[in-house]
Design a protein that fits this description.
This protein has 360 residues and is of the alpha/beta class. It is built from nine helices and 14 strands. Strands 1-4-3-7-8-9 form a six-stranded parallel β-sheet, with helices on both faces. Strands 11-14-12-13 form a four-stranded mixed β-sheet, with helices on both faces. Strands 2-10 form a two-stranded parallel ribbon. A hairpin with a 3-residue loop joins strand 5 and strand 6. The mean pLDDT is 93.
Length: 360
């Protein structure tokens, strides 16, 4: 248990820092697609952002922090209303960690509600870290737990969470809420979301240096034993370039400027139903257009497209409007990696990435 590079009272990462030799991105992709290795067993070396890319991050923060701050307050208010007693935020590492930090601060300082915050691993096709859940439930009431994340893309992790918690509840005769509470929900999969817009959540632009210097989670039996928390790398060597505390401080300053004491809003169930139809239609079109055999290789939304460009092997990236400021970082990454950029004004999202299929 540790807090990465955050303040100790901001988050407890229920992750085990490990050492694991990095796998080159192309080799990792081949191993994943051939079925020889699961993606969680490997990790590629994470590089620091280029100066140009870092400038885009700062511009993105300046442009989007007001909207991001208001959505965080809407989400925090909804959580406070849904949990009249204790609140235990459980963010999904690592993209959910900055959001969890900000929600916890908002609940404590703005809404006057005690809130604990843990960040835990959940892995597609492997489920949630059960050791982490047991740790949390040994310390906090089951009814206090709220799972939080930054955004949904096509809902894979939201569905993984529901299924994992359903099984956990059955095995242990508890009643954890399996819903995922997010800032933005692009596909109608969240239990509650402040927004359905595919806008640039600033923390999605960077990796470890805005997420407590923590990597994505690792589940490799060579470094994670029975009963251990899922693993992670801790990038101490990037401490001089770390923006994790700076980022949450800047966004929380914006939260403090919001005058409305109890903003209302959020995505309605009717809007979520429409978003589900939109998501399913987009996925079907992308599969047909690009001959994609595995639906996991279609990544809708700015957040997911960014992650593909940072750590996968993209076939191409589609953008609705290349002149939008929020896609500037996507275009920089694509050009740096010689990834084709396709402009498609009919996209329902700001960006979509297609992962290159390497296996025969």
């Amino acid at each position: 248990m540790f807090s990465g590079s955050y303040h100790r009272d901001d988050v407890t990462f229920l992750l085990k820092p490990v050492r694991l030799e990095p796998t080159e991105v192309g080799e990792k992709e081949r191993l994943i697609q051939s079925g020889r290795r699961h993606y969680s067993e490997m990790i590629s070396r994470e590089s620091l952002p280029s100066p140009q890319y870092l400038q885009v991050f700062h511009r993105a923060l300046d442009q989007e922090k007001k909207r991001f701050a208001r959505d965080l307050v809407v989400l925090a208010q909804h959580i406070a209303n849904a949990r009249p007693a204790a609140i235990t935020l459980v963010s999904l590492a690592r993209a959910g960690a900055p959001v969890g930090v900000l929600l916890a601060r908002t609940l404590r300082r703005r809404l006057g509600r005690p809130a604990s915050h843990y960040s835990v691993s959940i892995i597609r096709d492997r489920g949630i870290d059960v050791a982490a859940l047991h740790h949390i439930l040994n310390l906090h009431p089951v009814e206090s737990v709220v799972f939080v994340d930054g955004w949904t893309g096509k809902g894979v992790i939201a569905r993984e969470l529901r299924e994992a918690i359903r099984g956990f509840n059955e095995r242990h005769r508890v009643s954890l809420d399996s819903g995922l509470y997010t800032v933005a929900d692009l596909c109608g999969a969240a239990a509650f979301a402040a927004s359905a817009a595919d806008y640039l959540i600033p923390s999605s632009v960077l990796g470890a240096t805005v997420s407590g210097l923590v990597s994505r989670s690792i589940l490799n039996e060579a470094v994670v034993g029975p009963g251990d928390f899922h693993g992670c790398l801790f990038y101490e060597e990037y401490a001089a370039e770390d923006l994790s505390r700076w980022f949450v401080d800047r966004v929380y300053e914006e939260i403090e400027r919001i005058e409305d004491p109890s903003p209302v809003g959020g995505v309605t169930p009717e809007r979520q139903a429409r978003m589900r139809v939109t998501s399913e239609s987009l996925l079907a079109k992308m599969r047909e257009r690009f001959g994609v055999r595995n639906i996991n290789y279609v990544k809708p939304g700015l957040g997911e497209a960014t992650r593909v460009l940072l750590r996968r092997v993209p076939e191409c990236v589609l953008v609705r409007d290349p002149d939008l400021p929020e896609v500037a970082h996507v275009l920089i990454l694509a050009r740096e990696k010689n990834v084709p950029i396709v402009v498609d004004a009919s996209l329902p999202y700001t960006a979509v990435a297609i992962i290159k299929e390497l296996a025969g």
